[in-house]
Amino acid sequence: MLRRIGLGFMASGVVWKSIEVASAKEKDDTQPLSTEDVGATAPRLVIVGGGYSGSKLAYYLDSIFNITLIDTKNYFEFTPDIVHLVGSPWNAEMDAAADRLIVLHRFYTRRANVVTGKVSHCGDDSVEVGVETNGKVVKHSLRYDMLVLALGERKPFPFGSNARTKSQRIAELKAFNHFIKEHCERVAIVGGGPLGCSLALEIAEAYPKKDVHLYHSTHSLTPSLPKVVQRYAFEKLSQQPNVTLHCGRRVIKVRSSVDRGGGHTYEVQHGEEPGSSVPRKVRSIFHHVAFGLEGKRSSAGERQKRPSPQPLADPCVDQGFDFVFHCTGSTPRTPEVSSQPFHKEHLTDTGHYRVSRYLQLFGRPNVFAVGRCNNMPWVRSYGNSEVQVNLLFRLFQQAFVAGTLTFDPREGIKVNKMLLPRMFVSFGDHGALGSTPWDGGLTGTTALREMLGTRKSLTQLFQKPVFYKTHQGDKIQRNFEQWREKEPTTNVEDFGVCGV
Ligand SMILES: Cc1cc2nc3c(=O)[nH]c(=O)nc-3n(C[C@H](O)[C@H](O)[C@H](O)COP(=O)(O)OP(=O)(O)OC[C@H]3O[C@@H](n4cnc5c(N)ncnc54)[C@H](O)[C@@H]3O)c2cc1C
Fold first, then answer.
1. Which of 59, 68, 79 has the most ligand 1 atoms within 8 A of CB, as the residue to mutate?
2. Is 46 close to ligand 1, i.e. is its CB under 6 Å away?
3. 289, 358, 389 from 493: Cα distances, Å
4. Among 154, 169, 381, 423, which is best to mutate for testing ligand 1, by the most ligand atoms less than 8 A from CB?
5. What is the pLDDT of residues 309-366, one digit of tens each?
6. Distance 117 CA to ligand 1 centre (A)
7. I need a surface site. Which of 116, 186, 194, 437 has the fewest CB within 10 A?
8. How far is CA 143 from CA 35, 127, 483, in A?
C-alpha cells in the first residue's frame, strides 16, 4: 500500500506539504519539514497554478527541485469529463468517476510543498500568496530561484469553480447536475467549439425532452479542427431533433432576471457576424502558424492592437432559457495576478505571456510560462500543454541533471510541427471528435478509441504515481547557478516563433 507521511501545517483544506510515503489517512501533518527530507539544498522552484500544466510539471520535477506548488484549490481536475458529469443524469458510477478524476495535489507529488492559496503578486525573487485560514486571508511571501507560471485561463462556471477542496467540488458538480436535470427545460450554449458541441450533444442525447440551443459566430462548427471534423459535428448536431443550431450568429449579451418562482431566467442577444455567410479560407490556427511568422512577427515587449469589432446585422433576442453555458474560450488570468500586473511588458494584447521557444520570459531566464497562459498560437488542449511540459522537463534534465549548463539549441517549441491540434473531445454516447498532428481529423468510434488511449496516458500519472529517486540537491544547485549566469534570454528571434 502506498504510504504517505504528510508534514507541515494543514488548516481548512490548506496544506503546506509533505513527503509522500503513506496513504492520505495515515499522514502526520504535525511534524516540521526536515531540510534533508525535502532536498532543501536544491533550487527552489515555485509553480503557480495546479491545472494540467502546473500539476504535471510538479510531478515530473519533484525529484530534481525543491518545489512549491501553489494552486487556488487543493486538487487537480481532469476537465474533459466535466461535460459528462454535468450533462447526463447522475448515477452511482459517476460518484466513482468524480472521485477518480479529481485528484488531490498531495497524492501525486512526493516531496513538493503544496499550498492552497492565491498568488496576488510576483516579485523578482518571491511571490506573495494569500492563504485562507478560519475565514481570514493571511499573506505569505515565498522566495524562488525559478518560477513557473501555469495560471491557465479563467473558466466560467461549471467548468471553473471557486471550490477549494475536492469534496466541495464534487458536491457542487452533483448539485449542478441535479439542477440541469430537474429545473432546466431550455438551455443555451454559447460557442460551437469542441467543448460547446460536445456539451450540446451530451445534454440533447441524455435528455430528449430538453430544448438545446447552440450559438456560434461562424458557419463552421469546431473551426479549429479539420474540415472532416467540422462536417461531422454539424451533421450530427443537425440530426438531433432537440438541438437548434444558430450558426453565423454572434452572441452580444446574456442577461438574467428573476422569474415568478424566484429562479433565474436568461435571455440571449445575438446578431449576424459580418462576413460569416462567406465561407472562410482555412484560417484559425493554420493561418496563424503559417503567416504569423511573416506578417505578424512580434518581438518581446511589443504589444499588438486587436482590430475593433464591427457592428452586427439583424440583432435578435431569444428569451426563456433556464441556463446559459459559456463555451467561447476563456479569458486569461494574467491581469488578475496583481493589482500592478506582473511584468506588464511580457503580456500580449490578449493578456497572455509572450514566451520564447524555451517558454521563458524576455530577459528573465528563471521565469517560465506554460499552458494556456502563454501566447502559443495552438488550440488550447491537453495535448498541447503536454508538449510544453515535456519540453521543460527535457530542458531541465539536460541542463541541471546531465549538466550541459545550457539549453540545447535544437530543442525548443517548433510551432510549424503543430499544424494540427492534438485534442479529442467526447461527442455523444459512442463517439468522439478531434485531431492529432499525425492522423489529421478523426471522428466517431475511431476518434473514441484514440480519445480513450490519450485520456489514459494523460491521467495515468495522477492516478497511479510512480516516484523516482531524488537527485542530489547541491549538485543541481551548482548547475543551476552556472546555467543562470550563461543563459541568454534576450534573443528576439527566439520570441517571434511563438505567436503574437
Ligand atoms: C470543460 C473543459 C473541457 C475540456 N476538454 C478538453 C478535452 O476534451 N481535450 C483537451 O485536449 N482539452 C480539453 N480542455 C482544455 C484543457 O483543459 C486545457 O487545455 C488545460 O487544462 C490547460 O491547462 P493549464 O494548466 O494551462 O490551465 P488550467 O487547467 O486552467 O489551470 C490553471 C490553474 O491555475 C490556478 N491559478 C490561476 N491563477 C492562480 C493564482 N493567482 N494563484 C494560484 N493559482 C492560480 C487555477 O486555479 C487553475 O487550477 C477542456 C477545458 C475545459 C474547461
1. 79
2. no
3. 16, 12, 22
4. 381
5. 667 778 899 999 999 999 987 665 555 544 555 667 788 877 888 899 999 998 888 9
6. 16
7. 437
8. 16, 6, 19
